[in-house]
Amino acid sequence: MQKLTLKQICSGLIALIAVGIFPLLTTNTFAQHVMILFFMFGMMGVAWNIMGGYAGMFSFGQVAFFGIGAYTSSYLLITYQVTPWVGLIVGGLVAALVGAAIGYPCSNLRGHYFAIASIAFGEIVRTHFNNWKLIGAAEGLSLPMLNEGFKNFMFHSSKLPYYYIMLAFLIISLLVCYLISTSKVGYYLRAIKESHDVAKVLGINVVRYRLIAIMTSAFLTAMAGTFYAQYVLYIDPESVMLLPISIQIVLISMLGGAGSVMGPVVGAAILLPISEVTRVWLGHKGTGVDMLIYGFLITLISVYQPKGVWGLFANMGKRAK
Amino acid sequence: MKKGSCLEVKGITKHFGGLYANDRIDFSVEEGEIVSIIGPNGAGKSTLFNCITGFYPPNSGKAFFFGEEITHRRADAICKMGVARTFQVVQIIGDMSVLENVTTGALLRYTKIGHAMKKAEEVLAFTGLGEKKDYLGTALTIADKKKLEVSMALATQPKLLMLDESMAGLTMVELRGMIDLTKRIREKGITLIVVEHVMEAVMEISDRVVVLNSGKKIMEGPPKEVVRHPGVIQAYLGERYVVSQ
Amino acid sequence: MTEQLLQQVVNGLLIGFMYALIAIGLTLIWGVMNIVNFAHGDFLMVGMFASFWLYTLYGLDPIFSIPVCTALLFVMGVLIYRFVVSKVMSGPMLAQLVVTFGVSIFISNLAVYLWTPDFRLISQPLLSGTWVIGEVQLSIPKTVASMGSVITSLFVFLFLKKTKTGKAILATEMDREAALLMGINTERINSFSFGMGAALVGIAGAFLSTYYYIYPQVGGVFGTIAFCVVALGGFGSIEGAFIAGILVGLVQTLGGFFFDPAYKYAIVFMIYLITVWIRPQGLLGW
Lengths: 321, 245, 286
Fold this sequence. Notes:
The complex is a heterotrimer of chains A (321), B (245) and C (286). Chain A is mainly α and 321 residues long.
């Protein structure tokens, strides 16, 4: 992974400025909502990428971390009036610990085996939350309507603060991913992805680095979960623990390009508007047409552009060589 | 136990069910030596490598590296101690460039990418892959992949390098290059254990040769003695050749 | 108490035989071409709906619609292989994992679109009622379905071991390159195996439709359980899938009985995780 070139830094800044002033130019709250979701899924895609694109651990259970983050901060807020900002950190830590606990026995699992284990993990967590009276079981948790403000991480009159906070989270996750990719950890994860034998023979402690990847990924995903809880003010297992969310996260990374820092962001930028728009236009009747299109797209992408779209952009400047 | 032994192997036994792949193997290697391990296919050579380097746990027996026991240690821990190895089926990181591959190896001894990369470039200059440093791993020929694998191992700065059939499948020119590389590695002070089938390489580089057959060590000694030994000839070519001698 | 326990064991066996048949199809596909078919549960759903519509529109009892379901699902499987799956075989692993998810989402939502999400039931199958043996109650449709699954599984064993195509499939499973060298058209074997895997689960769907609710998302749970069964039995092992299916059925009912019915699936998933931790290749896998 190369360090950034001047050209890349400039284009990044321009994109940042564009995204930064976007919500000031439009009062369309749906558009703002789509952008917020784009940032959120982009962040989760980047988090997934650390485990999946770099280390080869294709997780289809990320939603469990999302839900753990959402529930932890919400429960702490409701029961102990802990500010969501602290809840955010605690949620991340809990998710990281759970990730390590499940990651350790699965240390030698690769490819399909790991994927299925991650699905099983996600489903176990969901079943548990569905039946756990302490945190509302199937009825979920309703967050209290507190005074709006940064301290309470709650804003009622406008989506703008949510927009910028989520954007900041996304940037944080991109920074983490970038730092990993240009460091020893990144090299080691890529070696592990290739083969455990190669990694061992170069002196890499495979278990340790896999856990590092899982815990980082879990922490970031949980952050998104806390954000979501503060954004919608009601969570239940059906909205924050479902397998389709995990699949969407994988899809975003794959579409954009797993194994590159910006890939998942590109993937989210393409996929979120499509899925939100089709859901609003076509999904409300319950006919499933939106998901139909979605499934078709997934299939199409897997067949025709499995390496993702980011690779195309990255090579466009190099084609002259 | 001999003092100053780089590697000491005592009674290593590994069986899979009823099949004894390694049956009470003993030998030792002095620092600075090149020892070759030969034997017909299925003799247990790669299994022995795997037992020593922590990829298989032996059923019994011990291995010592400069006096410290390495049996049952984790493979990456053994590498950290200074034992590097290559595989019979060459293993490199296909998605990375040659330079990145070797850098990954160098990162064992350095934390900063910059330093590791510099070390990697030194190693590549030494092994002769410098010009191809930006080639993607998957784009290399088999000979270059083997060289890359050796480069990666050297980047971990080992005291002992164990090569598993590095000369297999090479053309005459590539073979000559690999033989010379092996000698240059020894000149750097690295001890070598080499599993090999290519006899001309074995004859040229080895100080001593250890012969395995059907899991047992049947002989060890200087190369010229070993190839004339009736037991060795029988193992490779069958009884009729022994009689005809 | 013991009668209840015995009842649960019987129930476990009955559902276990169904799981076994579903898993055999899945493990066949996996063993031959290394693809985990995440749409497998949805193939089951299609089989169930096929049986339902044949009953509702033509009065054909599920037991007699089995040949139709088999043929339909076989063709569907082959087409999906030819036009979708075969194209990702040479692609990155991630694509192979995701593509059958795409097919799964497509099929299940196509079902929602065509037939609405409503639950359906075959109200008057030919075989209904309950046998009572001692203290144990055996629902006749369930028992017939289970026995049917066992018989079908037996046919599969015999097919694989005794027929030329079957042996070719086994050969491809064991060593693809060697099979190619022996002149086996592995691409055709792939198509056939995918179709066969789909057909088997279509048969299971027909059997299941005699007593289970039929709705578009029904494939979800069965699919996920099938993975656990296959992983437990060992990817690629037909006998393993059979035995593991029975084990999983028992774990599910007994686990629900001793702990909490709401957790019965979670317990199955836990067994999967424990198995891959201790013995990654499953009970009989390679």
